[in-house]
């Protein structure tokens, strides 16, 4: 959905890599994250400072193949190869549907999925995945397990100004971000982690070394360029009005949410989460929340399974069951292409 | 070491990606390997046909973040989540040092490292990793476990004409290749698998989806360009003599191996594997073998640990112990930059 912005900025976001460049495995041999391109790290840190969404001082930055690889890396780094029992991985429902698969699919003896954090009654041995703003429902979240002995990974993929007001710079032990949600470049497969503890960061880097021997340099170079164009749009004095990416994204999402809320209200059969307007320190004004997903709840008692219901009118959704709750919920992407979103609104509206 | 070639070919190998292209997760939504860029697949298959190193008919092609991710994917695909016991992963010593770590580092309940295939006395439940030409020693290999019930993964990273004669197109169930060893572009992190069985291919794709939600499009586009330049060098009628990549690489390696063999012979303390000259169907002449690694054996009884010995004269090697054999062996890269290789030869020669 952000493609029109990138068409508009034109050549300044184009990456050019000659055949003889970026051939080696190594990007920065002296860094323990030796596969991290310094120009990518610099642009990511610069953008955090401009946006004010994360504390970057005294953090280690680890690049990964999307934030998905970094979730694997974080679970690995926070677990022990020596432990007799795998550590429990939890997240408050509704939770991102991939968390459970990521924790379980390799049948690792180091960690295992243990479900909804709110229902967790286990011992001190847990890792809570905290997604904020939350996928699927857009809520701003804190960890729900207060137990000091547990460990936490904060998935901040959607903590960018197009989606939600920037309340304060997030300040957690492990924070994950991804180019995919920040700029729309999912195919580039670049995520990054800001990590407080040096030993945890080293183990995350080790995981990526064992898993894929580092991360595409080409994509890191491209991501650096993309992040730079966004940062320049806010920092350079002579840029055009149309080159402010977060303003562009926010405007697009505001329009989509307005249309969705109208269609939902007209149907009278579903409800959406409500978000209070809050002060955004980046925009320097009160701002609404426009999550990347619509988390739809069915209010019509005659519909048992909302995903199945929507399938009958050719709307593809993901059932609440995949997120640890009931079939009265579905998640719908708000980030699809314009044409697809238009069709979706048309079909929802046909339900009136 | 192949950098000079890529400098010579100039702009034809340069990749250019505008900011608005290749943004989506999806490359080929109708393919079960939906993250595979068709242009990359086409160029990889085209190069196999030109070189004659692998049977490509009726194979599924899966792209991965280097061949490392594809080894993980293959172990996952050949194991069962339902099995009571993890499947044994074996490889004949000396074996690539990463195989054992890849099999064990996640403590998976699906598979586990079981060591040297030649010493394996287990049941039918095994996966043999066959590296041919072998890393570290350059030997052409067949599976050593004849048991029909076992499964095999053929790591063919070095089966390219710069390293070894092309005897015949390899024809195995799962064959792994990587741009890193084929063209020198390690930083691009692109590997691919040719897979006979559709279900195995589907499970490998599933692994990559769960592990990293696909593979960098930017790197696939770049790899396609790089492979195309090599293929064009052999297929287009009007290319210059200097644009034949495999001839260039072979010439470079021949020169290095000549210098290394002279220095080793002069020292009188070490030996190197010998390889018979064989007919190469690609070059259409008898050709020597020039492995990407030198596998050095110590013949001097006064040296107990060859890696430690070389460290004293500032030559970094990897000990035979990491490859499942004794400290009288070390592996030395033949693919380093010219300047580093020169220093290495100088230091070896100083031992006379």
From TrEMBL, chains A, B:
Keywords: Aminotransferase, Pyridoxal phosphate, Transferase. This is Tryptophan aminotransferase-related protein 2. Belongs to the alliinase family. It comes from Rhynchospora pubera. The keyword Transferase applies. Gene3D superfamilies: Aspartate Aminotransferase, domain 1 (3.90.1150.10), EGF-like, alliinase (2.10.25.30), Type I PLP-dependent aspartate aminotransferase-like (Major domain) (3.40.640.10). One of its GO terms (biological process) is amino acid metabolic process. Its cofactor is pyridoxal 5'-phosphate. It holds the Pfam family Alliinase_C. Residues 1-351 form the Alliinase C-terminal domain. GO terms for molecular function: carbon-sulfur lyase activity; transaminase activity. PANTHER family: BIFUNCTIONAL ASPARTATE AMINOTRANSFERASE AND GLUTAMATE/ASPARTATE-PREPHENATE AMINOTRANSFERASE-RELATED, TRYPTOPHAN AMINOTRANSFERASE-RELATED PROTEIN 2.
